[in-house]
User: Fold this.
Amino acid sequence: MVLDKINGPNDIKKLNREELSRLAEEIRRFLIASISETGGHLASNLGVVELTMALHLVLDFPQDKLIWDVGHQSYTHKILTGRRAGFSELRKYGGMSGFPKRKESQCDAFDTGHSSTSISAGLGYACARDLEGKNYTVVSVIGDGALTGGMALEALNNASRMKTNFIIVLNDNAMSISENVGGLAVYLSGFRTSEAYTGLKSNVENQLSKIPVYGNRMVEHLRNTKNGLKQFVVPGMFFEEIGIKYLGPVDGHNIQQMVRVLNDAKRVQGAVIVHVKTVKGRGYPPAERHPSRFHGTGPFDIETGLPKTKQKKANYQDVFATVMCKLGSRIPQLCAVTAAMADGTGLKRFRNLYPERFFDVGIAEQHAVTFCAGLAVGGCIPVFAVYSSFLQRAYDQIIHDVCLQDLHVIFAIDRAGLVGADGETHQGIFDLSYLSMIPNMTVMAPKNKWELSDMMKFAVTWPHPAAIRYPRGEAYDGLEEFRAPVEYGKSEVLYDEDSIALIAVGSMVRTAVGVRRRLKDLSYNCTLINARFVKPVDEQMLLQVFKDHHLVVTMEENVRSGGFGDKVMEFAQDTGADVRVINVTLPDDYIEHGNVDVLKKETGIDEESIFRRIVGEYIGHHYELEQV
Assistant:
């Protein structure tokens, strides 16, 4: 097997052309077999096998620097740098990351996880190289979907000033997670389909090359002239017009073609874009037919492509999808906005029912928030459905364009809390902190699926900015008997006793139920309160709790700094309450990839850990831990 010859960086350069072709197929078979067991990002990785191989044939690792935008498509890169054995523990706690990690290998030049960053990072690398007087190649790989992000366009504008070599590989597969939208997608599609460009270019070069003596010189002159053939056939070439040399498009599954064009790109004194056309999911029919489904997949059956474990209960995205469709039928002003995540956030059904009120703005969270602000001042009620970690990218717009003007924009914050296998860049563990400090913002978290629905109904009637954060995965359907109306700033008392009070936020209410049951087994009275609102905090509830309880335990799936527990502790101090407060939170740190249940245990926010902490810190003098 050719793959057995790849044990470290640059081993690929020892292979002949026939072995390279076999290697590509072996890598695909390995990825399909491995990811079918562990889960991971499949379609994007199958699409860049040959592209990655060509880059490794042209570059020297770890001296040269290869920066992957987003980074979920770096699996072949990991294989070619000697990390194939790590795939058995891919995305597991303590195992290999599904994204580039500098601490994992010297061949990973930059930690990535969010889109539209690679050109900026690569440009910085190239400038540092020049300042330090070093001589290595810097390549940034970016997808056509990520190129819609404003940061990428800002970086392109800056890169046009480069006077030394900097290579940008545009991986064009007409997809981000969902199908690309917008003018840039149409522009690139023109390159992909334009026979006027590819056909005429080929014919002209063929005819000129037949002219004795001067023919080849004329072809070379056309290739090197800024106002050459491309300018005549495709007027207003975007990249070259802003000062970046353009090469391509080239077949991203033809290794030899790509090696040639990448070597040409290395000779350019300035920024150069290599436009590579690839097929997402290449080589595995189910992934080619359904690339969105295989963007991030769990374990699946290779024969059919179907998941090995079927979802038994509705997840929070399903609940959100249902309530959006119901509200859309009743409220004609309601609009849905997504940043290239219609499928992931559950807005696909709304798009099908109300296409004129659905807006996919591309991978552009900053634009999405201000776009929502414009919709709101125009009389609409926009709902921006977005992953928690991606909303971080639009923080200024939330403050300046929405909350400063006190606009009726609803933020449906998906993947809040620990998300698991994608790791540090995707954990949604900061939103309670960064949102609740903003004036005019209301921040809510539902305890179960019914409360998510009720909070959405409340938010559409609340004429101010509102954020509802909910976790990834199966929607909790317990505590159905508790469904008090959602009132602004009011918590919900589920069990009213004394001595110990558990005040839980959102997903942690389910955990608090188990903690309370254990405390009751020890004959301790225990109040359980569903906080509902993180901003504003229910101060009237807290004053009553401080009177009747000796211990208050706050519970949230968020970092400690600036979170709900911080606010409760500060209020206790400000009011001089004679009560002990324990904050159960995630650490003020970045949390690596792994199974969510494992991560909860490791960070001390699982039921067992919380119970033992309460016993150890408060009840320890009555009960020895060993006896519990």
The two ends are 56 Å apart (CA to CA). Residues 191-198, 225-236, 621-628 have pLDDT under 50 and may be disordered. The longest helix spans residues 17-38. DSSP finds 26 helices and 17 strands in the chain.
